[in-house]
Amino acid sequence: MPDSPAAALMEVLSLEEREPDLFVGWTPETPLQRIFGGQVAAQALTAATRTVPAGRGVHSLHSYFLRPGDPHTEIRFEVDRIREGRSFSTRRVLARQTRTGEDVAIFALTADFTAGESPVVEHSLPMPQVPGPDGLPGIDEVAAAHPGRATGARALAVAVEQRYLEDPFDPTPKQPPHTQSRGWFRVHGRLPDDAGVHAAALTFVSDLTLLSAGLARVGGGWSGETVGASLDHAVWFHRPVRADEWFLYETDSPAAVAGRAMCLGQIWAADGTHVATVAQEGLIRSLRG
Questions:
Q1: What is the chain's alpha carbon radius of gyration, rounded to the nearest angstrom?
Q2: CA pair distance 147, 152, nearest whole angstrom
Q3: DSSP state of 127
């Protein structure tokens, strides 16, 4: 077994190259019945990154969750090198699994990489004025306050430290204009000094709490009375960030209709640098029938 949570995450991201442009990944042992979406997205980005020339970092990814992933079956990532330009490289990745003898697609991703250019204009969102992570409650405190309701969150928190600015089980609905939720996150342990690894790790974390923003206006985002599933996921990487150092993640949902919630996220490094923007539409259903 890996000797640290960061090493465990690196094992998830260390794909086997079975043949040119075909990579294989696995899911660590988990109590979850389906693969965590952030995992397959991070693995797909890793597969794409390994086919891109050195010196080109990812600036955006757009993806769709097609079917729930089986955590007990290998995932094959097929990379299509659809563009190799002077400044940009584009890759399409299709993740597939074999189910009862049938080969099915579970996830599709398109990622774009760039060598960078001299900026003509630069601006970014300022980081909200919030307390730092030290002294804020983590997943253990949340789980202790809500016995039996944080099993899935604790399983994913093995690799990712989290500090909450508010109780994620708070039943009080949020009212405009204060509908945002915020928390501090970092990979638990030290990751290699590789920008591609940190981009993949940030992608992993970006899917952890985003969909719960869709429930903020009705309250009790982790109440257990609903079930959610990510439909798509997009990340724009504005500046490099170390995913193993604290970063602030703010989420909100501008619209929800017909069972689908549109959720947006902004990420800042601890020094206030705006490093990424995230968007996702998710399906939310009631367990009450």
A1: 18
A2: 12
A3: P
Q: Which two tokens stand for residue 97?
A: 């699994």
Pairwise CA distance, residues 197 & 70, whole Å: 24
- By annotation, the residues acting in catalysis are 207, 230, 280
- For 165, the token pair is 């600015």
- Give the number of other CB atoms < 10 A from CB of residue 19: 7
pLDDT tens digit sequence for 65-82: 999 999 999 999 999 999
d(CA 206, CA 222): 17
Q: d(Cα 33, Cα 227) in Å, to the nearest integer? A: 13
Look at the block and give the residue holding tokens 């760039």.
114
- Separation between Cα atoms, residue 124 and residue 273, nearest integer Å: 8
Give pTM, 2 decimals: 0.94
259 vs 236: CA distance, rounded Å = 25
DSSP string, 53-102: PTT-EEEEEEEEE-SPPPTTS-EEEEEEEEEE-SSEEEEEEEEEEEETTE
